[in-house]
Write a structure and sequence with these properties.
There is one protein chain. By secondary structure, this protein is α/β, with parallel strands linked by helices. The chain has 2 domains: about 180 residues, Rossmann fold (3-Layer(aba) Sandwich); about 140 residues, Rossmann fold. It is built from 12 helices and 17 strands. The strands form 5 sheets. The chain has a 7-stranded mixed beta sheet with strand order 3-2-1-6-7-16-17, sandwiched between helices. Strands 9-12-8-15 form a 4-stranded parallel beta sheet, sandwiched between helices. The chain is elongated, with a radius of gyration of 23 Å. The protein starts with 6 loop residues before the first strand and ends in a 7-residue tail after the last helix.
Amino acid sequence: MKDTMRKRVLVATGGGDCPGLNAVIRAIVLRANKERDWEVVGSINAFDGILNEPNEIVILGEKEVAGVHIRGGTIIGTTNKGGPFAWPIKNKDGSWGSADRSDEMIRRLQYLGVDAVINIGGDGSQQISQKLFEKGCNIIGVPKTIDNDLSATDFTFGFQTAVQEATTAVDKLVTTAASHNRVFVLEVMGRYAGWIGLHSAVAGGADVCLIPEIPYDLDKVMEKIYSRFHRGRGYAIIVIAEGAKPKGGDVHYQKKKGDDGQRLGGVASKLIADLKKAGLETDIRETVLGHLQRGGTPIAYDRILATQFGVEAFEMVLKKDFGKMVAYRHPNIVSVPFKEAISKYNFVNPDSDLIKAARGIGICMGD
């Protein structure tokens, strides 16, 4: 039961897991503990913890967050399905539908004595934050995604760790590709933004980088591969983002039995099939990095950024600066309204300095 003399802030982590989530939670708790009249609670698996029966709400104190900043994932769990506005329900005919339980969730928050909510998540999570704020919920957002696709912040925590993992993969593929005179295609995450692909390609020294923002010409990719071989010897590394597409073509989706909607992926195997069909005879293999980009220990950069976000989020609670998301705009930690935070997708600018640098060192962007 809540101590009626103390105020309560609830923390939720939604969407995909991400290196640095625990550092944010830890920072919120440690900052809140400096205020004697506040306590922090966590909702298990995003907002499911509030809506489940019985609810799953845990007290978060210094003991619970001790040392968690070095751990990947989230100690309070997460989910990218359902939510208060689309709670999954099973119909009488056995099919699945959804129900809006947002009003009920707000009532439950009031019953639990929650004075403010900090929602840590990406674009989808912050859209939920905006809707809850419009319903009168005292809510603040913290941006989280390895994809770096939120335009209101220079970087999201988790992105740099994902880039490091992808770069390490490129480094390792170089040695095996050179040993066997092969071409390797590395598929990385990023949804419809090419940030992970571009950064890891430049850092790892890839030969080809294919991202969603620049549709690729298969002939240009072939030309670059051939330029890397002489008398059958040589190697090439291609980094391709999961949302990349050929000129005049569409984004490639894969759908497994039981999946809801479309799922990105399989673009590396499709590229290899297209290259072989076009006549490429060089030995070519694929590596799909997948969820290795999401897991593991966050690098120092992401721990620091996540800590700054957590402290600022709680200080916004103290100021009652609700309806906003924490953001990083170098060199400052600021806040922006949810509407601004979710209004524009953060695409890679094809004319950006990093793209120019990539081209300058000979990386083929597929065009």
